[in-house]
Amino acid sequence: MKLALILLIALLPTPGQTSAEDLGNLSANPFLYESTANPFGAGSPFAPNGINNPFSPYGSPFSNTSATNPFATDAPRLYDQQGHYRGKLSANPFDPDSTANPFSRYGSPFSGESINNPFGPGNPYRFDSPNNPYGKGLRIEGR
């Protein structure tokens, strides 16, 4: 009985054991399979967890985890190729980490950490920029 209880406790998930779901790359490259600009890859409107699918949890305008919901608080997160956090891919202009918030460090066109800055991470000539039509872009992770 004690052994069964110990096994049950060991198998229960703890709050720190969450794993992120890979949703592809935020990229303007239509030839990269992982790109959200590729309609046959991660950008497919039929991908079960795609951000371009209006019926998926990450693309629905009503889901709290959606990139398109203007009231979402748990939107997908963006990471560059080195693993640095680049904010939330969100349409919420009030979320302090949202790329749609023009006053946040991840959404301001003047911030050095914003993908909206054409002279910083949003530069179309940088390899890891989501605006580069030939680059890899930023990794998108959902909960």
Q: What would your notes on this structure say?
A:
- The chain is mainly beta and 143 residues long.
- It has a domain at 19-90 and 127-143.
- 7% of the residues lie in helices and 13% in strands.
- The protein is built from 1 helix and 4 strands, in the order αββββ.
- It has one helix spanning 2-11; strands spanning 21-26, 77-79, 85-88, 138-142.
- A 4-stranded antiparallel sheet has the order 1-4-2-3, with no helix packed on it.
- The longest helix is centred in the N-terminal third of the chain and has 10 residues, at 2-11.
- The model has no long low-confidence stretch (mean pLDDT 89).
- Residues 53-143 are annotated as: Disordered.
- Residues 1-20 form the signal peptide.
- Residues 53-71 have a biased composition (Polar residues).
- Keywords: Signal.
In short:
By secondary structure, this protein is mainly β. Helix content is 7%, strand content 13%.
Give the topology, please:
Elements (H helix, E strand, L loop, with lengths): L1 H10 L9 E6 L50 E3 L5 E4 L49 E5 L1
Antiparallel strand pairs: 1-4, 2-3, 2-4
Keywords: Signal
Order of helices and strands: HEEEE
Query: Radius of gyration, rounded?
Result: 17 Å
Characterize the overall form.
globular
Q: List segments where confidence is low: pLDDT < 50 over at least 5 consecutive residues.
A: none
Largest sheet: 4 strands, antiparallel
Proportion of beta-strand residues = 5-15%
Q: Which strands sit side by side, in order, in the main sheet?
A: 1-4-2-3
Quantity of strands, as a count = 4
**Proportion of helical residues:** under 10%
